[in-house]
UniProtKB/TrEMBL annotation:
Organism of provenance: Ruminiclostridium papyrosolvens C7
GO molecular function: DNA binding
PROSITE patterns: HTH_LUXR_2, RESPONSE_REGULATORY
The Response regulatory domain, residue ranges: 5-122
Entry protein name: Stage 0 sporulation protein A homolog
Amino acid sequence: MKKISVAIVEDDPVWLSSLKIFLENEEDLDVVATAATQKDAVEMAKNNDMDIILMDINLSENNMDGVYAAAEISQAKNVKIIMLTSIESEEVIRNSFTAGAVNYVLKSNYMEIPAAIRAVHNKVSPVEILLKEYSRMKEAEQVAALSNAEREILSLVQQGYSQSKISEVLFKSPGTIKAQINKLLKKMGVANCKQAIKKINTKGILK
């Protein structure tokens, strides 16, 4: 079986080493090169053959030089670039794709990196990847918009409490509970409590 060759660009040596070991435990992945700066990344891409480059967006204290490196590399070489970052921002995603990246993975979701590499290698559409990430971010925003009171009600709904029982537990009138439930359903973009529970159970978004 031919392995997927991967290069990593990361300025944190500990994270770089950990990621390299993690990826090399995958039977179909082979880390063939590493770099730590924008300049070194460009040189690495010129002097090595690889299928995928994992590119950290921030290769220095306050810069997004990983994006610039991705743009320079993608113009000079036919290689697929996946951006890695701890920054969760629609603007960062747009900049990454504009620079030539074909995927974007949060470092906190590092377990998804092998699957992302395989998806890109198998030519999954960048548009599909972008839409999936945008959908995930919107779901997180929907939950973040819930008030503490709404989160409390949603937690009780998840536990199987009826509206009347929630009213008793929280010492609020049934009308107030109904209004709060309708409001949180609207915020979550669902039609009823069943859909809300399905969303929080499948996405794990009520923490």
